[in-house]
Design a protein that fits this description.
187 residues, alpha/beta, 18% strand
């Protein structure tokens, strides 16, 4: 069974829609046969409910909350505090991975819609798969992640040609999976 580590900077649970989407993607990937572990940052959270219960998601993957510095709730210096949060989460994730798995984690597939953690994970030679939500800006981190990813996912078809035109990403490297609905929820 292939090990996949889904790394997200999303606070879980969150009242925002991306929290549900993140948990449902993890559930779907685990249903496809991946041994999946999700890493999410420890953040101040007024929602105390278990994320699996909150989103009514099958507990078929492991969710690990990684210690990190949470300064975003202060609502000042948001730009600076955002980067402190991101980098402390990346550092905490790397420490966790080394402590939990030694160097074996480098053979796992890393999946994320966050490009900055993927950049740092790839520095250790781990394979990365980038789920492109926002269209990438032409920055160092985005360019490196787009080039180093063995695959990309997009939710809108226009991104396939746009990624090729702007960044030279071959269309064969991109999978199109539109936003979806869990029809079983309504059945």
């Amino acid at each position: 069974m292939t090990k996949m580590i889904y790394i997200t900077s999303t606070r879980l649970p969150t009242e925002k829609a991306h929290g549900l989407a993140t948990m449902k993607i993890a559930e779907a990937l685990a249903r496809q046969g991946y041994e999946l572990e999700m890493l999410a940052p420890q953040r101040f959270n007024p929602i105390k409910e278990d994320p699996f219960m909150y989103y009514n998601v099958e507990k078929n993957f492991k969710l690990t909350i990684v210690p990190s510095i949470d300064l975003l709730s202060f609502k000042i210096l948001n730009g600076l505090f955002f980067y402190i949060n991101v980098f402390s989460f990346i550092l905490g994730s790397l420490i966790y991975l080394f402590m939990a798995q030694g160097l074996r984690w480098r053979h796992s597939i890393f999946f994320s819609h966050d490009h900055i953690p993927l950049y740092f994970i790839n520095l250790f030679g781990a394979p990365i798969f980038f789920d492109v939500h926002d269209f990438p800006s032409d920055t160092f981190f985005y360019r490196k992640v787009l080039r180093k990813s063995f695959g990309l996912a997009v939710q809108t078809e226009w991104k396939i040609s746009a990624l090729g035109e702007r960044f030279g990403v071959p269309s064969g490297k991109i999978v199109y999976w539109p936003n979806g609905t869990d029809v079983a929820f309504f059945g």
